[in-house]
Amino acid sequence: MRTPWRRLRAAWITLTGTGAAASVAFGLLVFASVLASLAIPRDSTGLRTGALRHTVAASPLDSAVVGTIGLLTASETFGQSAGESPAPEIAAIGARLRSRLAATGMPIASDPPPWSSLTSGYGPVTGAARAAGRGQPQFEVTYRTALARYSHVVAGRLPSAGQGATAQAAVTTATAARLGLRVGTRLTMGPVPLVITGIIRPVHPSSDFWTDDPAAARPTLIAGTSSQPAHWAGGLFIGAGALPLAVSGLNDSLMLLTWVVPADLGRLTADQASAVQAGINGLASSGLVISSGAAAAPGNATCPVSCPSTTPPVTVTVNSQIPAILASFAAADNAVAPVLGLLYVSLAVMGAVVVLLGARLVAQRRAAEFTLMRARGAALRQLGWLVLRASAVIAVAAGALAALLAIRLTPGGGNRVSWWLAGVTIAVTLAGPVLMSVLPQRVAAPATGRPASRVSGRTRAARRIVLEAVLAAAAIGGLIVLRKQGLSAGNPSLYPSAAPVLLAIPVAVIVLRCYPPAARALARIAGRSRGVAAFVGLARATRTPPGAALPAFALVLVLTMVAFPAMISASVNRGQVAESWRQVGADAIIQAPVRAVIPPALQRQIAAMPGVAATATGVVSDAALPASGQELTAVFVSPARYAAVTDQAPGVRFPVAALSGTPARGAAAVPAAANAAAAQLVGAAPAQLSLDSTQTMTIRVAGRTGGVPGVGADAVLVLPLQALGSPAPAPNLMLVDGSGLDAAQLRADVSRELPGGLVTLRAAALAAITGAPVPQAAQVALAQGMAAAAGVGALVLLLSLLLGARTRDMTLARMATMGLRRWQAQLMLVAETLPEVVAAAIGGAACAWLLVPLIGPSVNLAAFTEAGPGVTVVSAPFPLAAAAIGLVVASLLILAAQAVVSYRRGSARALRIDG
Amino acid sequence: MTDSGSTAPVPLGDGGPTAGIPQDQPLTGADGMIVCDRLVRIYSGDDIEVQALQGLDLLVADGELTALIGAAGSGKSTLMNILAGLDTPTAGAVWVADHNLGAMAAKERLAYRRSIVGFIWQQTSRNLLPYLTARQNVLLPMRFTPHRRRERLRRASFLLETLGIAYCADRTPDRLSGGEQQRAAIATALANQPKVLLADEPTGELDSSTAQDVFSALQTANTELGVTVLVVTHDPAVSSQVRRTLAIRDGRTSSETIRHATTDEQGRTALHAREYATLDRAGRIQLPREMTTRLRMRNRVQLQEEPDHIGVWPDQAAHQERDHRTPNS
């Protein structure tokens, strides 16, 4: 009796045929590809979203959208009849605003919730306490939605929604205390009688509800003028029921309508940021136009205030600081997008190649089966259906598992691109095996295990030349067109994204053309030696197997995608270090407070600290050029020691030679090193320099220097300390060289010996640069992409070796019957495979090297380094060599594994299989 | 369907030699199941051309079991592949069951492979899908045609029983002996009720006893199912059991052997074989090499017409000249 397991196994074998094992491998590839295509973009989105949230959290700006219709009389605003409440219309406009904002993708906060208000101008109120020496208090009457959510009733109750002859109002505890109000107090504001029904305490006191109009929360003392004395101004919160009375009674008062929609930017994802920014900017520039009657929702008491068709449309002015919050993130994100884009596009192409290679493996394993079926009368359509059925089962199962795992691994990283990529992967998974299996069977053939080909070798060679030439020409043409269009059409990410793939095509063609002759030359050399393994291996290597272009292209692209991002990473690291040097100028700077000096004991302590390599001191002094009256800063240093410390920094070398041989005080002009601004002020001729209005000396610019560490002035002169005479004054600036110094101890020493002294560390500046949210997220994504590319490379190697495994096993088996030893077999494998891998490694390295000048100008790394423009990717031999060596080592490891498997299987089986 | 062109076909006899048919008339036959007319197949390599078939003529009558013998490279497999619809001739014409293989489109060729011919290859492992049982393998070709499932199952069972392998219907090929595999392959080839069964050295990998079983299966297909069988073989045991054996040499049919049985007065049956040289439609014959060597026939011979035969004589003048030049010989 057959067990369910055996039934399942039989069904599986019937489905996948002779390619059962290959189908499992294919399923794993599909799994890996779908997982990568989903997880990497989702994870990248997650990283970028994390960076966005970090940016949002660090921003002091307000994250709400405020819509206003301001400074209109109530009748101008609504044109309503007396006795009708505008509250529904206010709510409807608020709903429209929220709807428009939600359409941009902005997440609207629910706590604190959106609110709206109608606020009158200030008017004198009778009935409130009048402070001594102050004028009559003035109040604004404000109707606010969500008052109950933003306040806590301390006494009484909130104003009711029902209408009445007297308007009910609430005041804050601060207003009540200041102006002597309590529950039941009756007030009169113009013609409107009011009664205090409740005292409230603000909830969410830092929210816009309470900070947008400070007088509403707490009375404000208004300074007196010639026409009226100083007085308190406060706010009265009325309910919806009092609105008709207030609007009609305060008809001549200027009204301000406000809608505030707080955003929950913590829920905003990186991919939504640009749309939200653009949407809010659009609303801010054009406003929210409310046409006649449109504000009232249909069926909602249909325009409770009268909405005559003649009423002109009103425009709600929209303001928000959200675009400003998002701007810094968007700028950095847009800057790193081309770098990540090129990685993802190449990864997608590599994934497709891997799936196609897997499909070819399946097709190769089932070729004999399909040939037999064709000979027995199977139509191509029937073969295609057989293959599609098998690949669909594998693709759906593997794809679903991969999708589940990807979602589990990267929660909350929703990304539409990732689903598209996964969809394309599945499509390739379904179409690839069908095409790979069916196309070789177009012509039915005897069941020899090989599909028929009625095309002569010469024709095939001609076809290959034409195909390669067309591909290479199209790729180069694409590069040229994209470079011109991409850089000029304002879409700079298109060109660098596609460039690696396009460049890899001609490089792969060249590799495939060049390596067989090289292998033949090596085979000739090996043929002269006594050993047989290397000769046979190289002889096999000289044959370019059909379909070798795909793995070669993939390997070139893989190596490019490992080496090029590595070069980007190295360039970023260099740029970040350079920026930290530019910002600080030494490993540590100690600056004395104004009019203080660094004590000699502290200098000695610092110099003796572990990790300190060298120190230099300086006297920073304000200076002026008496001739022109221009002010600058003079720094007196010991040139040699100063140079020893500051020359660690990249950039302009300090001209120590120009400042040596300093004349004694009072002698000829003192040589000075000037930065650009100072050199312009001083000029080439000797000039008088006045120090702190107490000392004058003649100086001449003897050399140029960059900025001086710790001195932020525009124009700086560096002069020899001896120019100040002997004994030299105590320094107020100390520079420290030593990357391993103990920052905590340094700070403690300075704090103890020099209270108020300022310690600036380059390591801290570097940490701030490297820890910036967006660059850090981009670096992580870059590293992940490189790892994924390396993984894909290993898969490509494995697959290309598997594709040739059968014939290789056969050769090994035949050679074994002739007495080939195991180590010779391994040597043969290496000799056969390594030329192709080395050629691909060289091609990939060349491709990555070429990419630097090709797309380097399009990739600005300033966003990674927080430096100004000009930080570009620079060629670096180490990442190239490391990637190429890694590829070769990986292929050797896979070959060793195959040799072990082949040896264990034994030659008899290989020979029997072939027979 | 016959596509014989505008020229009227010449009726054939019982599948005998084709001599006497005028060259300007195509070779076909009212009861000829396989008809090859001046068949040429040239394989073009990069710099060389190989003529596998050089104007081969062949007639196999409906219901005949014919053996095809010849040295390696003589063109046997090429001919079989053309007859199976897996290859196309460079020149000449070939009809199988009234199908002109040279004039068929891809779709017709597919239908031809499905329903008209069955094929068995020498290597037992390549005739059957290794992961299917014998019954499933037999069912496979029928799945390419619109047979009903019940009909397919009935046909498969019938074939397996007829060929004596019903007991191993549910075994996969790796659990079948070589002979069982080849009989399963014959059943698979017969699945769609073909009119012609082509077997390319079906006993080549088998011992003599098993080969006899397989040949019996072919005979069963021929006698019980009425299928015309053309079998390529190197096995004398096989070729000696068929009524007609054709020999191919250098891409042409060179000779054929006709066997007929006689029964003596005691009722004992004896098989008599007579070998004929093939006279092609240009009037050419291939003389057996052992005869030409023994009679020292080279370059040219003398023909002497007699009332009831033609005498072929060595060139006497050339003999005398050679003997004169080499007195010691």
Walk me through the structure:
The complex is a heterodimer of chains A (915) and B (329). Helix content of chain A is 55%, strand content 15%. With 915 residues, chain A is α+β, with helices and mostly antiparallel strands. Chain A has a six-stranded mixed barrel. A six-stranded mixed beta barrel of chain A has the order 15-16-20-17-19-18. In chain A, helix 2 packs antiparallel against helix 14 (416-438), helix 11 (322-365) runs parallel beside helix 14 (416-438) and helix 25 packs parallel to helix 29 (877-905). Chain A is flat, with a radius of gyration of 39 Å. The model of chain A is unreliable at 294-310 (pLDDT under 50). With 329 residues, chain B is of the alpha/beta class. Helices cover 27% and strands 28% of the residues of chain B. Chain B is built from nine helices and 13 strands. Chain B has helices at residues 76-83, 106-115, 134-143, 149-162, 178-189, 208-223, 236-239, 289-294, 316-325; strands at 32-44, 49-61, 65-70, 91-96, 99-100, 117-120, 196-200, 228-232, 244-249, 252-263, 269-277, 301-305, 310-314. Chain B has a seven-stranded mixed β-sheet, with helices on both faces. In chain B, strands 2-1-4-5 form a four-stranded antiparallel β-sheet, covered by helices on one side. A two-stranded antiparallel sheet of chain B has the order 12-13. In chain B, strand 4 (91-96) and strand 5 form a beta hairpin. In chain B, helix 3 (134-143) crosses helix 4 (149-162), helix 3 runs parallel beside helix 5 and helix 5 runs parallel beside helix 6 (208-223). Chain B is globular. Chain B starts with 31 loop residues before the first strand and ends with a helix. Chain A binds chain B through residues 13-14, 17-18, 20, 368-369, 372-373, 375-379, 382, 444-449, 452, 456-458, 915, and chain B through 44-46, 77, 81, 84-87, 109-111, 113-115, 119, 121, 123, 125-127, 129-132, 136, 140-141, 144-145, 188, 192.
